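4-diphosphocytidyl-2-C-methyl-D-erythritol kinase: structure, please.
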Amino acid sequence: MIVEKAPAKINLTLDVLHKREDGYHEVEMIMTTVDLFDQIQITELEENTILIQSEKRFVPDDYRNLAYQAAEKVKDKFNITKGVQISIYKQIPVAAGLAGGSSDAAAVLRGLNQLWDLHLSQEQLAEMGAEIGSDVAFCVYGGTALATGRGEKIKPLPSPPNCWVVLAKPSIGISTRTIYEKLTADHMNNVNTNDMIQAIKDRHYPTVCQRLANVLEAVTMDTHPEVKWMKYQMLKSGADNVLMSGSGPTIFGLTQKESRAERIYNSLRGFCEDVYVVRMLG
Ligand SMILES: C[C@@](CO)(OP(=O)(O)O)[C@H](O)COP(=O)(O)OP(=O)(O)OC[C@H]1O[C@@H](n2ccc(N)nc2=O)[C@H](O)[C@@H]1O
Ligand SMILES: Nc1ncnc2c1ncn2[C@@H]1O[C@H](COP(=O)(O)OP(=O)(O)O)[C@@H](O)[C@H]1O
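Here you go.
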């Protein structure tokens, strides 16, 4: 049996440059993984099938699961007639802007590479991942990276400065597609990505906080005022800055003090079920 960890990601920046002919949006975003994980267990089966097991509601147990799609891709590409059972122990909230499904798919790609001795490079795994979803390539690498194209072109970056990250997910569902559809030209090209890259390279925490920016945030907040309210609460309880991750609805706040992270956690816990204190993974 192979066991893989699938970490969540947050977007430190997310800019949209323009809408493309193929319907996707050209993006420029800095993502980093945090220590909130799903666990993936992969067991080989003699029968030519893919079984998905997850005890969590809202997680599909068939071809709609991104982990299933990852296994199918590997099997098809290498004509593998053995099967797999994939058990997903979910910690990452679903449809949250934290790339839980994409990270599960990336973990399956890494796991099957090992199980079936395929000797695929990270680049090859990322290329296969990009065919499953825009965020999967990043999840293959993890760490901190600049993602461009529709999100699948990855350039690794150094670790951001040490800090605590408090995540809070309002209990609403967001469709990534709908948020991208509501985006207008006014929202686009509004992020100083280069300054954030420099702040990360300099490990300069105040500038990292100052440069947190996501053009999808205003769109999601317009349709879901709960997200705006939660951001206000997190700022009020002492985070140095707060931003929505991806298309939302999860927001995250940064602080360098553990005691302050605990204070933020405690003050949000009363009205939000999904609150986590985590660290960036690098
Ligand atoms: C917004 C982001 C930011 O990291 O993440 P999440 O909020 O999903 O975590 C990503 O761009 C989401 O990536 P992912 O969720 O993998 O997207 P996909 O499955 O490829 O696409 C879902 C839908 O989003 C829209 N989409 C996605 C990526 C992109 N660059 N342009 C788009 O317009 C398309 O309408 C697409 O049909
Ligand atoms: N392994 C998986 N884990 C969670 N959701 C999944 C998975 N595979 C497919 N999905 C579907 O993808 C949707 C988005 O899930 P997720 O990846 O958690 O969110 P996001 O794209 O916002 O980061 C869910 O609504 C769910 O139906």
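Notes: The pocket of adenosine-5'-diphosphate (ligand 2) is lined by residues 58-60, 64-67, 88, 94-102, 104, 176, 246 (CB under 6 Å).
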